[in-house]
Design brief:
With 471 residues, the protein is mainly alpha-helical. 74% of the residues lie in helices and 1% in strands.
């Protein structure tokens, strides 16, 4: 057995908040949040998301960070440290990032491909309907971009917690926010008159995005919006995949957890909102309401290049570069946290040094990621996944996403709520949050959520994913 490497730690609360927020601010915020908001009518989705973020999301986030700091362990071993009979939850929590990292890195490769296209002056070609399909169905090019993205992730994680992840987050997160704010403000200034003489503006699109419209909405339709918003929280705040437990294990005992969680919530929700503000007004201006709701998961790779094309060759190219640079930064901050959750688990469980763990995890991810890339050509097949964007046309990427995000993540979160709420009791988390005399601002809300409300909401999400409940 190898000697266990000394665990790293964040140098302070700012480094932890930026790293955790960087994990949360990824493709889930910049890609998935806007298309769901567009699909669900904008304002209503936004309202549901904000309420859930302050209650449901807060509960899951504080639970995982506190478990990590209390045990000083990664997800694979943390649950077992608190209770010997709950080790299986840690195994599932560790399996989730193992499944996510390959396809997340594949999508990260797609983003780099588009960034390169705009940087080399070929952004105009991305407007064609066949551009995206032609790229992902090619045999070798997607693999090369995937490996490039994976390599960048590997380098940051290899450097460790303080010299790699924290230093990387301190530089990249402020840049990311500046880029998003800049593009969001520009989106509001847009104006376009279509062939029928109808003029639409970015400000009109912004109103569609932020003002809830309940007119004609049925209870069933509202429930769909609610479950979409709840599912989005998993993507947005990086819970149920071991990341926040891992990052929590690197937090010093003198850090105010309650304050840090509040800052992560605020940062993540702000960026998610700005991502929607960056994309939805622009899509509305050039494609109308129909374009907003019809774009779906293809919003970022198909609809937005068309929007950039309508802006004119020079402005469209500049905005395209800035947009895909922003998305590249966001994707990378998240992939780093996903890989770190797996690497940390390998170090804690098998006593591996960081170098060995990073190389081993990267090799496994490379193999799985190549399979994901080939899933659109040599390994192409179609599967039916109920209640998912892929629907009847699911490929390898969609299957991995379904198993990890739609099945395992709700299962892990339900188990965590039962574990904390009923087995070891909420006091376990409350004591960790209030360690050192710090206050727990939403303590009573936390107890009610973790024991009763969160498990019920999570069960509904799981039953919907399994097709038992049809909305």
């Amino acid at each position: 057995m190898e000697k266990k490497e000394k665990r790293g730690s964040f140098t302070g609360s700012l480094g932890f908040v930026l790293a955790a927020a960087g994990s949360a601010v990824g493709l889930g915020n910049i890609w998935r949040f806007p298309y769901l908001a567009a699909k669900d009518g904008g304002g209503i989705f936004l309202l549901c998301y904000l309420i859930l973020a302050l209650t449901f999301g807060f509960t899951l986030l504080v639970t995982e960070i506190a478990i990590g700091r209390k045990t000083g362990q990664s997800p694979l071993t943390a649950y077992k440290v608190i209770h010997p009979g709950m080790g299986w939850v840690g195994v599932l929590a560790c399996a989730i990032p193992v499944l996510i990292l390959p396809y997340y890195s594949a999508i990260g490769g797609w983003v780099l491909k588009y960034l390169a296209a705009y940087l080399t002056g070929n952004g105009g070609k991305a407007v064609a309907d066949t551009y995206f399909t032609g790229f992902i169905t090619a045999q070798w090019e997607p693999i090369l971009w995937f490996l490039l993205f994976l390599g960048a992730t590997m380098i940051v994680v290899y450097k460790g917690v303080d010299k790699g992840i924290e230093k990387f987050s301190r530089v990249l997160m402020p840049l990311l926010v500046l880029l998003i704010v800049g593009i969001a403000i520009y989106s509001l200034t847009l104006s376009y008159t279509d062939a029928s003489g109808v003029t639409r503006t970015g400000l009109q699109g912004f109103k569609v995005y932020v003002i809830p419209n309940f007119e004609g909405m049925t209870a069933k339709q509202f429930l769909v919006v609610l479950t979409d918003a709840m599912g989005q929280l998993f993507y947005s705040i990086s819970v149920a995949m071991g990341i926040m437990i891992t990052y929590g294990s690197y937090v010093k005992k003198e850090t105010d957890l309650n304050k840090s969680v509040n800052q992560i919530e605020l940062f993540d929700t702000m960026v998610a909102f700005l991502a929607g503000m960056m994309i939805i007004p622009a899509v509305f201006t050039f494609m109308g309401r129909e374009g907003m709701s019809a774009s779906g998961p293809a919003l970022m790779f198909v609809a937005l290049p068309k929007v950039f094309g309508e802006m004119g060759s020079v402005i469209g190219s500049v905005v395209g570069i800035l947009f895909f640079l922003t998305v590249s930064f966001a994707a990378l901050t998240s992939s780093v946290s996903i890989m770190e959750a797996i690497v940390s688990s390998a170090m804690d469980k098998f006593r591996w040094e960081r170098k060995k763990a990073v190389i081993g995890v990267s090799a496994l991810t490379a193999i799985m990621g190549i399979v994901v890339c080939l899933g659109y050509n040599a390994l192409y097949f179609e599967a039916i996944l109920p209640n998912t964007p892929a629907g009847k046309n699911a490929q390898v990427l969609d299957v991995l996403d379904y198993i990890s995000n739609y099945i395992l993540m709700p299962v892990v979160s339900i188990a965590s709520c039962i574990f904390i709420g009923w087995i070891v009791k909420p006091k376990t988390i409350i004591d960790e949050v209030t360690l050192g005399g710090f206050k727990f601002g939403r303590e009573k809300l936390y107890v009610v959520m973790v024991k009763y409300i969160a498990p019920v909401l999570l069960l509904l999400l799981l039953l919907q994913a399994l097709g038992v409940v049809k909305l």
